[in-house]
Amino acid sequence: MISRRGLFDAYEKNRRNVQRNKGTGDGATSPFTKLKSTKLSSQEIELDWLPEKYTAVEVKGTVKVAGKDVDVSRRVYQIDIDKNYIPKDPEANGLTNQQLMAKGKSPYVIKDGVESKIELHHLIQKEPSGMVEIAEVTHDKYSGPLHGLIEDGQSFRNNPELRKQYDNFRNNYWKMRSQD
Length: 180
What we know:
This protein is α+β, with helices and mostly antiparallel strands. It has two domains: about 1-35; about 35-180, no CATH class. It is built from five helices and seven strands; from the N terminus they run H-E-E-E-E-H-E-E-E-H-H-H. The chain has helices at about 5-20, 95-100, 135-140, 145, 160-180, and strands spanning about 40-45, 55-65, 70, 75-80, 110, 115-120, 130-135. Strands 1, 2, 3, 4, 5, 6 and 7 form a seven-stranded mixed sheet that branches. Strand 2 and strand 3 (about 70) form a beta hairpin. The longest helix is centred in the C-terminal third of the chain and has 19 residues, at about 160-180. The two termini are about 15 Å apart.
């Protein structure tokens, strides 16, 4: 598994190559060729009460919604993601988790022996609000209790601007996460 330092060094080397070649791809065969800068950044925070399997990060940034920059800053509880894992799901098109995230797509984990996409769950069912990375199989299994805070029909997803805001956040979040 590649270290964070090794990943950063590979990214920086590729970034310099792409700049030198004006993005034409000449000699740039690294999986980092298509990484774009994201409008989000994150900083890890220490929480004594948080179980070891999670890392808490403060995500800061904005996304564009209806021509306006909207603040989508929030805390996200992250799980460990194997960036080199190649999901069996045909939707992944043979890409690694790293490549999927660089395209703004959800990566995959193996949960209880089952391959599952990682979903971002809104902890209090509001947008924007704190989130946790959770396996799709777990999210589906406990859907009732996880979504019980909001009455039927009251989801932020029923508001087109909030839905767009979240979709833009999610896309940029995974791109940011690919660069961790």
